[in-house]
Specification:
The chain has 87 residues and is of the alpha+beta class. Helices cover 28% and strands 38% of the residues.
Length: 87
């Protein structure tokens, strides 16, 4: 499965920048859908942000999905790869 990786940086209320990737099937092109996945993730972490836009979230590249990423996408529609300050 080919997936698109969207590089995302969000500033938390304490000023710390959170960095994560939103990984979706490469066939998904609608940016708003990508942002919705990101907002759901942030809500699950109890991180409050006003919006998620192209200022915070940008397409990075396409790659082949690993089996675990593929399973997450089939179950949840996306995979979130936590990189920095996501706890």
């Amino acid at each position: 499965m080919k997936v698109a990786v969207w590089d995302t940086y969000v500033t938390k209320k304490d000023g710390i920048i959170m960095h994560f990737d939103i990984i979706v099937p490469a066939s998904i092109k609608e940016e708003q859908k990508i942002y919705t996945f990101g907002m759901k993730y942030l809500l699950s972490k109890k991180i409050e942000v006003q919006k998620l836009t192209s200022s915070e979230c940008q397409f990075c590249h396409i790659q082949e999905a690993t089996e675990s990423i593929k399973q997450s996408i089939l179950k949840n529609g996306c995979y979130i790869y936590e990189m920095e300050n996501c706890t």
